[in-house]
Write a structure and sequence with these properties.
The chain has helices spanning 2-28, 55-67, 76-100, 109-130, 150-171, 177-195, 199-219, 228-245, 252-255, 257-275, 287-293, 298-319, 321-324, and strands at residues 136-139, 144-147. The chain is mainly alpha-helical. The protein has one domain.
Amino acid sequence: MTRILITAAVSAVLTGVIGYFLIPMLRALKAGQSIREIGPSWHNSKAGTPMMGGLMFILAVVICLVINLPSMVEKTVYYVLALGLCFGLVGFLDDFFKLKFKRNLGLTSLQKALLQMAVSALYLYLLYKEGSLTCNLYFPFVDTTIYIHPLAYIFFAMFVMVGCVNAVNLTDGIDGLCGSVTVPVMVFFAAVAVAADKLDLALLPACLVGGLIAYLFYNWHPAKVFMGDTGSLFLGGIVCGLAFALNIPLVLILVGLVYVVETLSVILQVGYFKLTHGKRLFKMSPIHHHFELCGWKEEKIVLVFAAVSVVMCLIAWFSIAGYLS
């Protein structure tokens, strides 16, 4: 446990130091964010803010896990990290094309979907071959497990993983939101891993707790840097990777409720718009923009959404009491 806490602290320090040097470098490279025309007009002032800031906590996590390498015996943590890095690479390519072609859209939706499905399939296959993927679907609250055929389970898991990663990505829409919402999620997974006696696996979310807290010093409103798709897709990969590595994927509905609501708000907005020939269900989607247009300041939205994330993680903890016992 001491090693986990020390690693989290080291990750925070490393992220802070890396960020101190990374942000000027990103500015020098003119790696600035483009603002979508359909977004809130007051976000135009954020144009030019350096993106790809997620590199600071990604590098910190990798360094911390490499330092711990001699004492680690759990292979699953490497698979989860590799999953996050692969998703982060997809995000990096997306960010790179945005910068190269000076536009807000990078990879096409089809390109991202195909890459994400390929990454998810490879991760699930490795977990299955390693014996860490049991194909037993655990239901929170009722403490019931149902066995699903491996092929069906992998298709189900791919759908959940791609959906989860993109949901986390949608949450990265205002200063500090994605990082603040994800900190309690990482605390939850670290605690579950410790309770399940998977201490090596607990190191990864612990690293991100420290890394994200340090990152928020740079990303809190007004943000000096954005994590970009590089960071948000990496976080999404780690979130869903941990859920499947611990064999509690359905808990994502609880701990990731903010991500789920953000995604549903987009789906409902688009569906309602088409069905009513132009009417809107929300003032804007994802839903954090709706609250902005209702007059909420960015800081208030972040604090409220983060508080919801904390409460849902506590509920999730009690919902899997049978799993933890």
